[in-house]
Amino acid sequence: RRIAALGRRESQGDRNMNYRSYADLSSDIARQLSRLQAGNFDLIVGIPRSGMVPAYMISAMLNRACTDLDTFIANGSPGKGMTRKVRGAAQSAWENKRVLLVDDSFNSGASLKASLARIPQECPCDITTCVIYANPAPVVGVDMYLVELEHPRAFQWNLFHHPALADSCLDIDGVLCLDPTPEQNDDGPRYRDFLTNAAPLHIPTYRVHSLVTNRLEKYRPETTAWLARHGVEYDHLIMLDLPSKEERLRQNRHSSHKADYYRDSGCRLFIESEVGQATNITRMTGRPVYCVDAHQMMTPEWASMSAQKKGQVLVCMFKRMARRVVTWLPAPLARQARSVYQRLA
Question: How large is the C-alpha radius of gyration of the chain?
Answer without folding.
Answer: 26
